[in-house]
Amino acid sequence: MRQWASECPDFDTSAMAVVGRIMRLGRLYEKQAAAALRPFGLPYTDFDILATLRRSGAPYELTPGQLGSAVLLTSGAMTAALDRLTAAELITRHARPEDRRIKSAKLTVAGKRLARKAASARFDIAAQSIEALRASDRKQLAVLLKRLTTATQLET
Fold first, then answer.
1. Mind listing the pLDDT tens digit for each residue in 67-102?
2. How far is Cα 4 from Cα 12, in angstroms, rounded to an integer?
3. How far apart, in whole angstroms, are the C-alpha atoms of residue 112 and residue 53?
4. Phi then psi dihedrals of residue 59, to 5 deg
């Protein structure tokens, strides 16, 4: 920011003090998440699907559309991930009785177990990554980040 102020003093760089740090933290947190999931043999996208199914509650089954609204993947990436998870026997796929064109994804017993273990490791790493913040700071930051996320989604 000092360099920009020196080179282009007419630029207001104050937003980058926030946005730049969020972007940097995002990259660091993605690396941490990948490292936490590596022992489970899960790329983050596959974990995200398993975790979404697991937290959905019994019967741990969702349509691709329901998964797509919770997981940020293109339809092609979703199909590839569902195929990997099916091949690994972590989910099963079957046609919905009301519309046979839609194939639900359902956690297997092994998928449910792996989702729980991987989520525990993921949550531990996330907790470690914000240890520098007091509990009250964490709550306030969560509120502020939610506000930014909501405002940004409304603009796009």
1. 988 887 888 888 899 999 999 999 999 887 777 777
2. 9
3. 8
4. -90, 20
- Assigned fold of 42-155: Arc Repressor Mutant, subunit A (1.10.10)
The answer to whether the pTM exceeds 0.90 is no
Q: What's the CA gap between 38 and 125, in Å, rounded? A: 13
- Delimit the domains of the chain by residue range: 42-155
In 3-state terms the chain splits into helix, strand, coil percentages (rounded to 5) of 70, 10, 20
103 backbone φψ class: left, alpha, beta (φ>0; ψ -120 to 50): beta
Alpha carbon distance 25, 52 (integer Å): 23
Q: Which of 58, 94, 36 is nearest to 48 (CA)?
A: 36
